[in-house]
Amino acid sequence: MLALEVQGLTAGYGPVTVLRGLGFRAEAGRITCLMGRNGVGKSTFLKALMGLIPVGTGTITLDGVALQGLPAHQVPKRGLAYVPQGRRLFGPLTVAENLAVGGLVRGNDPAVLERVLDLFPRLRDRLAQVAGTLSGGEQQMLAIARALCLEPKVLLLDEPTEGLQPSIIALIQEAVVVLKGQGVAVVLVEQRVDAVLRLADRVAFMVAGRVEEVRDTRGLAADDPAFRTYVGV
């Protein structure tokens, strides 16, 4: 089974170390949620996986192939796709142009684009629209769709439903479940307990730059002490 494996990872910003010997695993066809209080290093961890910040020590492997130390532009070619907070779309470009940028790594296969648009049909009607004029929910769908044009083995999502209306949240969550069924390993940063229990297979609780505990969601309830301990809810 395809797996993303992280062992003993340290990383940070200049002299500031944020990740401290972090260990983590994500598997194909499973949704793993990262939870923890603000500042524990969740977003930093995703950036380290993508090569966007330098890794000090430790290893990152995907199916046994080392990723640490690769230039950031090489990481997507190995099968990782990332949707950061803030979306980072190309605002002046159209929806179609944003998707084309996402597909450059795989040669913009029309069949891949069709599968992506099937996940987010609303974007099909807006291909000629400038991305910066979309609603917030549509922009988030476009950000995820652009990442999926890479045909990733692992999809990293940093709080993808934050600030969105319930109907858009439902559409995005449905798409994530479909991706799981297609064998994608999904790593999701999410703070809402109800969403985690509904979507995730496992929860990795982070404290001070490391994964402190990993729990199977089948053994978790909304009032489990772990949520109060690690997240404060």
TrEMBL record:
Keyword ATP-binding: yes
One Pfam family, short name: ABC_tran
Domain ABC transporter, chain residue ranges per copy: 4-233
Protein keywords: Amino-acid transport, ATP-binding, Nucleotide-binding, Transport
InterPro entries the record matches: AAA+_ATPase (IPR003593), ABC_transporter-like_ATP-bd (IPR003439), ABC_transporter-like_CS (IPR017871), BCAA_Transport_ATP-bd_LivF (IPR052156), P-loop_NTPase (IPR027417)
Any one Gene Ontology molecular-function term assigned to this protein's record: ATP binding
PANTHER family to which the protein is assigned, alphabetical: HIGH-AFFINITY BRANCHED-CHAIN AMINO ACID TRANSPORT ATP-BINDING PROTEIN LIVF (PTHR43820)
Family the entry assigns: Belongs to the ABC transporter superfamily.
Protein name per its UniProtKB record: ABC transporter ATP-binding protein
